[in-house]
Amino acid sequence: MSKRSHSRNAIDLSETISEPESVINFNENVYLNMQNAAISTATYVGQARQTIEQLSTNKYRWIATPPCVHDVDASRVLDAMLRNAHGTGGESSERYTACAICACPEIHEQVNLASIWFMYLLWPFTAGTLQPSDLVSGQATPDTYGSLVSASPEQSSRFRTDVNRRDGYRCVISGVWDGAHKPAGVKQGWVTLQATHILKRTVGGFTMDRAHTAAATWNIIRHYSGMSEETIQNMERLADDPSNAMMLQHDIHDIFDKLKVYLEQTERENEYTVKDVGGGPWIHPLELLGKTITFRNHDSPTRDLPLPNPHFIALHAGISRILHMSGASEVFAQILDKYDGAAGGNVASLKSNGDPVHQLSSMMSALFIGASLIT
Question: Computed from CA positions of residues 333, 335, 340, 344, in that sequence, does the dihedral angle turn out positive or negative?
């Protein structure tokens, strides 16, 4: 994609950070429209698709990014959000997404909506995949920003033990055994498995009473994920609950965290198919793609350990697909790469109070300023 010239109609991501309250208010207005029983979801979806089709050929559809970074095609973001809505949160998610798009009759409103979803939904999940040396304070654990409360060693140990016992001491995708738990006589290699968060602690801990922009992010998640209000309110606690985890070997853990591989639910309860976003290969051996796995509590009846929450798995899968389909994943990677180069390979020096949205805004601003100094 060639770099598009910025116009006064373009939305500059470095400026969208200032008013998260407007995001919340917009969501509330959309929610009111969703309650209009006289208009069917299919009607809203049809209108939204027409809006996206018209936007896809408009020269002002671009979300402006720093020089040497691809601009974001707002129509692709809206399209990916709409296409993956039903699979992520059911009809309510599809209705919410379509209503949001239909509530934006003007081009600049449509581009602004795409930029909101890009920054407040897609970026926090991407930021959650980064290691501390990539973006966050060196005092943080791999799954949390410095401003969030990290799990204690005792909590981390108990978390891993519970998930490992529930999953039968095996990687739920490859079936490889965990270390010393491999039964005697089994002729198979073993590794040290990792308790993998489905939704990263950066997302679970990024709750409404934390960062200023977190409320905007969780308002979007609430409508898009299909999660109950109770689940949303308890996410900080649930971040380190077995319902938000599974045992994976290191290489699969890595690509799952990076939103390249996800699980797609079948028609059976607690049964999933292993999928990837394409463009790989991401997983080895390739025969694992398309494999069907079923979660069950191997520690029953000793302990009643919860199985992975299907809403968490569906949200992880939806975000994975949206990042790939919209081109957002590539743009985020370019921003990180360019910022890392501008910072002399020291991205970890960036500090923004642990708020992923402010992290992105700071990077964008720095790149815009750097470009203006050069030119």
Answer: positive
Is 229 a member of any domain? no
Q: 3-state class of 287 per DSSP? A: helix
Let me know whether 92 and 133 are in one domain: yes
pTM comes to 0.86
From first to last of its 375 residues, what are the pLDDT tens digits of the chain? 445 544 434 555 555 554 566 666 676 778 888 889 999 999 999 999 999 999 999 999 999 888 788 889 999 999 999 999 999 999 999 999 999 999 999 999 999 999 989 988 998 898 877 644 333 333 333 333 333 345 667 778 899 999 999 999 999 999 999 988 988 888 777 899 999 999 987 665 555 445 567 777 888 898 899 898 899 888 888 989 999 999 999 999 999 999 999 999 999 999 999 999 988 888 888 899 999 999 999 999 989 999 999 999 999 999 999 999 999 999 998 888 887 776 655 555 555 555 777 778 777 777 766 554 443
Contact 351, 145 (CB under 8 A): no
Same domain (yes/no): 350, 328: yes
In a domain, 287, yes or no: yes
Helix (H) or strand (E) holding 127: helix 123-127
Co-location of 100 and 162 in the same domain: no
Pair 357, 119: CB distance under 8 Å = yes
**Which range of residues forms the domain containing residue 38?**
11-137+321-374
In a domain, 333, yes or no: yes
| For residue 356, cis peptide bond before it (omega within 30 degrees of 0) | no
Number of domains observed in the structure of the chain = 2
Give yes or no: residues 25 and 74 share one domain. yes
Instruction: Answer yes or no: do 164 and 282 share one domain.
Output: yes
Tell me whether residue 215 is in a domain: no
